[in-house]
Every structure is written in structure tokens, then in C-alpha cells.
């Protein structure tokens, strides 16, 4: 859930921190107090285009920061770990007056697209066209399937389609190779013969190249070894002889001064090293022998290896790897007809299974679409859209044998609406307003499995054009949704505001010669006064205050039970919300 939102130098917000909680969070304020800026700030996190005009006058940049708590518990609506992030995630979007802005995830720089991709998994804005999932036809299909309890069927179909496509591709590749016939078999056999004739060993070319260099310079190397032997090991002036003499003299002199004996001990390792080096040089000099026949053999072998590398390399390891591939291909070519028959049978069986699942999915979609549309239409009537018609169109191919089903089947699902009596049904994106979309989402949410994963939901225009009893119905439906997902609702209606689990008030004040927007969670008498303002305006009377108190009391009586907490205490989101004020946060209170 969204725990904190910080707006810094964003239009009339200088540095404001808004703390949210579980359930239904209502955001209220007089016109121009910054309610649209709150929705717009979340839109920026979701990837909306940044407008430099949003930067507060006199500032060079503006920041929007949000802290989300990801609930790892298994209660309904719990947000699972996202992209390897569990516990908390902090998002930031920066607007700069001089150029491109920036983005960050948990303090690390990120692309705006990366930020938006993560934010869209955490929060959804309902009522803002650029973030309307309701306008996407693929989401219509998903909503219908969720409502009909078809999620498992979708997953089974997707797995079956992927298995079918994998086997089908394997069969196509085998058929392509078989079509090449004996020509390909002959080519493979020829290449295998070319490599096997040479029979290269891993690293053989490097070993032979090193031996060739030794053979080419055998005389020079033997002379170097002999000179070293003489100077280190043999002869009266050899280094070993000199060291032995010096050490012997030091040992004798140590009878007079023991300190010289210690120096003599230091020479012992040098004497041993000279002995070993000398013996090694004797052995090396004896092993070096120029062999013209061996050199010719090496040159011939290296030539053969170079030719096979040019044909099948570039490296000797590549040649050896290719030989294994060619042998495997030859085995497949030899077994082609038998393997082809097996694959054909498998592909046919998988195809039947995929089509059966797709037909089942289509039938259950069509069966549920009519009843869901009727239920949604009734819901919309209670939400102030009397006379509105709503239909769910499921378009399937006339002959499903002519097309292969995709991972979600064949069907195209479209939501059609006629908001006003006498109008024709049309696609949502052609006629639905923001408020109508918000109310449609409300109606749909009551018919989607509450165990489905949901982000936090921000309703921006849900109360557009309604009031009275309809407003109370809308508020109750919002509260019902908030049992399974955090709901943020920007509203100007007291009927909705009174039903909130948490009430955030926005207002403006003048500081010096500047206007500054403030945000504060209101409780008790302050909340009564805010609801009373929404009822009767700036001049509060005892009657409006009494009415506001009654509305809040009634809302408390209507509060539905929260989902039962899991064993071990409150969910992580609640823990994060309670701890927000006493730990590092994304914002400081400006109110």
C-alpha cells in the first residue's frame, strides 16, 4: 500500500508530506487546495509527461516521492513481492526546469520507464485517461475471466499453447531438414569425415606451436643451457663453487666470531638453489636435440589443423564442438522418418488439447458475459447512472478450426456502454467520461474475485455529477473495495468523506507573499469541522456541525469488518503505516 507521499516544490506545494493508511483514505479540500496535484503527482510516478510549469516559482526542480509497503502476508488482496523487492520500496520522480528530469527506485537511479513499470504494479489511478486500464481491450478480457473464476483455465491454456508451439517448431525444423534429403545427409557426412580424418585434440595446436619453436631454436637453447650450467655449477669459477668456498671460510672464521656462522647459514639456501638450477640445466641441455624429421612432422600436423580450422573453426574448440553437432544431426537425419511420425502425433494431440481448452474458455466467457453485464448495469443504476446500458461483447471465430488459439484463446472481449438513454452502445474509449469510468470500475470491482492481486487504487473523479443518496452508495462501495485493497479517493462530497477510514485535508495559506498548500490527517473535532465545511460552506453553524458529527457516527456504525489478520500480528502494510512517523521517511510534514 501507499504509506507516504511527499510533494516538494510542486506548484503550490512547497514541502508537504501526506501519510496514508489501510482501507479507505479520503482526500478533501476547497477548490484550488491541491487535490488535482495529488492525483497528478501519482500520475508522474506512473509515467505521465512532466510539465516544467508544475515546478514552483523560484525553484529549479520539483520532486514527487512515494513510499510503498509491500505486504508479504497471505491475506486477501496482499501485495506479493515485486521484481525481487519485498518489504518497502521508495519511488522518486524529479522535474527539472532546465532539462530532462530523473527517476529513482530505493535511492538508485532508474529510467522513467522502469519507474513507471514498477509504479503501475503498486498503484492504479481510476479517473485519469492516460492510466485507464478500463480502456484497454486486453484488460476487458482479464476482468471477465477474473469475474467468471477462469484464471486457472487461462493458465492451463497458456501452458498448453506454449507446449504446442514448442513441439510444432521442432516438427517444422525436422521437416525442413528432411526436405533437403540425401544432399544434406551427404554434406553432413562429408564434414564429419573432414574433421575425423584430422582427429584434432583440444589444445593440440597450441602444444605443437610451442614444440615447433623449441625445434627451430634447439641449437641456441642448448648453448644457453650449457653456458648456464658452466657458470652456475661446473668449473673452478662457477657460482656454486664460489659460494661453497665463501661459506666454508665463514664457518672456519666462526670459531673466532660466532656472528660469521649466522651469515654462513644464510648462504645455505643459495647453495642448495644453485645446485638444483645446475642439475636442471644439465638435464635440459641433454634433452634439447634438433630433429629435422620431428620438425617436419610438426609443420605438417599444424598445416592440417589450420586447414580444418579454416573450414570449420575458427578455433580448434569450435571444430570439436561442430563435430559433435554434426554427429547429432546425422543421427537425427538417420532417424528422421520415425521421429517425424512421433512428433506429428504429439503435435496433433497437443493441438486437440489446446482447442478443447480454448473452446471451454470461450463457452464460459460467453455464458458469464451476459450475467455480468446485467449485474454491472444494475450496479451503475445505483451509482447515479439510471438508464445506462452496458454490454460485454465476446467475439469468437466462426470456424475455430481455421485459426490457432493464442495463450488467452481466440476471443476478443470488449466493454460497450451507452451512458444515456437512447444512445447506441459504443466502446468505452469513445464516449465514457472520467467519472463514468470511475463508477464503472466501482461496479466491476464488486464482481472480481477479492483474492486477485490488486494495487492501491486512486479514485479521482468518482463523485463527478452525483450527490445525495447516490453519493452515499458510492461511498459504501468504495469502502467495500477497501476491505481488500487500499483505496485513495479525492472527493468533494461529505457523504463519501464521512465514510473514510482516514481523512486527509488539504488547504492553502499565505506565508509572506507566497501561497502554500498544506496537508494534514484530521481526526476528532477537526474532521467534524471539515465534513461540516463540505456540507455548508465556510460559515459553520451548530446545525451543520451537528449534522457532520451524525454522519461520521453513522459511518462508524456502518464500518464493515476488516479481513482477519494472519497469525503473528498485523500485516506488514499496517506495521509500516504505524511505524512511518518514527523512522526514516520520504517526507517531512509541511503542515
Let me know the number of strands: 15
CATH class (first level) name of the largest domain? Alpha Beta
Given as residue ranges, the uncertain stretches (5+ residues, pLDDT < 50) are 73-81, 563-591
- Measured as a percent range, the helix fraction is 40-55%
Rg from alpha-carbon coordinates: 40 Å
Query: What fraction strand?
Result: 15-25%
CATH topology of the largest domain: Rossmann fold
**Widest β-sheet, arrangement of strands:** 2-1-4-5-6-7
Instruction: State the shape.
Output: flat
At CATH's second level, what is the architecture of the largest domain? 3-Layer(aba) Sandwich
**Distance N terminus to C terminus?**
23 Å
| Count of domains | 2
Q: Quick recap of the structure?
A:
The protein contains 18 helices and 15 strands. It is α/β, with parallel strands linked by helices. The strands form three sheets. Strands 2-1-4-5-6-7 form a six-stranded antiparallel β-sheet. A six-stranded mixed β-sheet has the order 8-12-13-3-14-15, with helices on both faces.
List the topology elements.
Layout: E1 2-10, E2 13-19, E3 24-29, H1 35-45, E4 61-70, E5 87-96, E6 102-105, E7 108-110, H2 112-122, E8 123-126, H3 137-147, H4 151-198, H5 204-216, H6 218-232, H7 239-253, H8 258-287, H9 292-312, H10 316-334, H11 336-382, E9 389-395, E10 412-418, E11 426-427, H12 428-431, H13 434-445, E12 456-459, H14 468-481, E13 487-490, H15 494-497, E14 502-511, E15 514-521, H16 524-536, H17 542-558, H18 572-579
Parallel strand pairs: 3-13, 3-14, 8-12, 12-13
Antiparallel strand pairs: 1-2, 1-4, 4-5, 5-6, 6-7, 9-10, 10-11, 14-15
Amino acid at each position: 500500500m501507499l504509506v507516504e507521499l511527499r510533494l516538494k516544490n510542486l506548484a503550490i506545494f512547497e514541502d508537504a508530506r501526506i501519510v496514508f493508511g489501510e482501507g479507505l483514505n479520503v482526500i478533501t479540500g476547497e477548490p484550488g487546495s491541491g487535490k488535482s496535484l495529488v492525483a497528478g503527482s501519482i500520475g508522474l510516478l506512473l509515467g505521465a509527461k512532466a510539465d516544467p510549469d508544475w515546478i514552483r516559482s523560484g525553484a529549479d526542480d520539483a520532486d514527487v516521492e512515494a513510499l510503498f509497503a509491500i505486504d508479504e502476508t497471505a491475506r486477501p488482496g496482499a501485495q506479493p513481492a515485486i521484481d525481487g523487492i519485498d518489504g518497502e520500496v521508495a519511488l522518486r520522480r524529479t522535474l527539472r526546469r532546465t532539462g530532462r528530469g530523473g527517476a529513482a527506485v530505493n535511492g538508485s537511479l532508474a529510467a522513467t520507464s522502469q519507474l513507471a513499470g514498477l509504479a503501475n504494479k503498486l498503484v492504479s489511478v481510476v479517473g485519469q485517461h492516460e492510466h485507464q486500464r478500463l480502456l484497454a481491450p486486453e484488460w476487458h478480457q482479464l476482468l471477465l475471466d477474473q469475474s467468471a473464476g477462469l484464471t486457472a483455465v487461462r493458465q492451463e491454456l497458456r501452458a498448453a499453447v506454449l507446449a504446442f508451439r514448442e513441439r510444432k517448431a521442432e516438427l517444422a525444423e525436422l521437416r525442413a531438414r528432411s526436405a533437403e534429403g540425401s544432399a544434406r545427409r551427404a554434406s553432413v557426412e562429408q564434414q564429419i569425415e573432414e574433421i575425423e580424418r584430422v582427429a584434432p585434440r583440444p589444445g593440440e595446436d597450441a602444444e605443437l606451436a610451442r614444440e615447433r619453436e623449441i625445434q627451430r631454436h634447439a641449437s641456441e637453447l642448448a648453448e644457453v643451457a650449457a653456458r648456464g650450467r658452466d657458470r652456475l655449477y661446473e668449473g673452478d669459477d662457477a657460482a656454486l663453487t664460489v659460494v661453497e668456498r665463501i661459506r666454508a671460510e665463514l664457518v672456519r672464521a666462526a670459531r673466532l666470531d660466532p656472528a660469521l656462522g649466522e651469515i654462513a647459514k644464510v648462504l645455505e639456501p643459495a647453495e642448495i638453489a644453485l645446485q638444483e638450477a645446475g642439475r636442471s640445466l644439465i638435464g635440459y641441455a641433454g634433452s634439447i636435440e634438433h630433429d629435422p624429421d620431428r620438425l617436419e612432422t610438426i609443420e605438417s600436423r599444424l598445416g592440417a589443423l589450420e586447414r580444418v580450422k579454416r573450414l570449420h573453426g575458427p578455433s580448434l574448440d569450435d571444430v570439436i564442438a561442430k563435430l559433435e553437432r554434426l554427429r547429432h544431426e546425422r543421427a537425427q537425419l538417420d532417424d528422421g522418418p520415425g521421429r517425424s511420425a512421433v512428433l506429428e502425433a504429439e503435435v496433433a494431440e497437443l493441438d486437440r488439447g489446446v482447442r478443447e481448452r480454448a473452446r471451454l474458455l470461450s463457452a464460459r466467457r460467453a455464458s458469464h458475459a451476459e450475467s455480468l453485464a446485467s449485474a454491472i448495469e444494475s450496479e451503475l443504476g445505483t451509482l447515479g447512472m439510471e438508464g445506462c446500458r452496458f454490454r460485454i461483447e465476446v467475439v469468437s471465430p466462426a470456424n475455430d478450426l481455421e485459426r490457432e488459439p493464442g495463450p488467452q484463446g481466440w476471443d476478443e472481449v470488449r466493454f460497450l456502454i451507452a451512458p444515456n438513454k437512447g444512445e447506441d452502445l459504443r466502446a468505452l474509449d469513445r464516449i465514457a467520461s472520467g467519472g463514468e469510468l470511475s463508477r464503472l470500475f466501482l461496479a466491476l470491482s464488486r464482481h472480481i474475485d477479492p483474492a486477485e492481486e490488486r494495487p492501491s487504487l486512486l479514485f479521482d473523479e468518482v463523485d463527478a455529477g452525483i450527490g445525495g443518496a447516490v453519493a452515499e452508495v458510492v461511498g459504501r462501495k468504495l469502502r467495500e473495495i477497501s476491505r481488500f485493497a487500499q483505496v485513495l479517493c479525492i472527493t468533494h462530497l461529505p457523504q463519501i468523506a464521512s465514510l473514510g477510514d482516514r481523512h486527509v485535508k488539504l488547504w492553502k495559506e499565505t506565508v509572506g507573499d507566497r501561497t502554500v498548500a498544506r496537508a494534514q490527517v484530521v481526526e476528532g473535532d477537526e474532521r467534524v469541522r471539515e465534513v461540516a465545511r463540505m456540507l455548508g460552506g465556510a460559515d459553520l453553524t451548530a446545525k451543520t456541525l451537528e449534522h457532520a458529527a451524525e454522519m461520521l457516527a453513522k459511518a462508524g456504525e456502518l464500518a464493515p469488518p476488516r479481513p482477519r489478520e494472519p497469525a503473528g500480528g498485523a500485516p506488514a502494510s499496517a506495521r509500516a503505516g504505524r511505524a512511518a512517523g518514527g523512522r526514516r521517511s520520504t517526507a517531512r510534514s509541511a503542515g
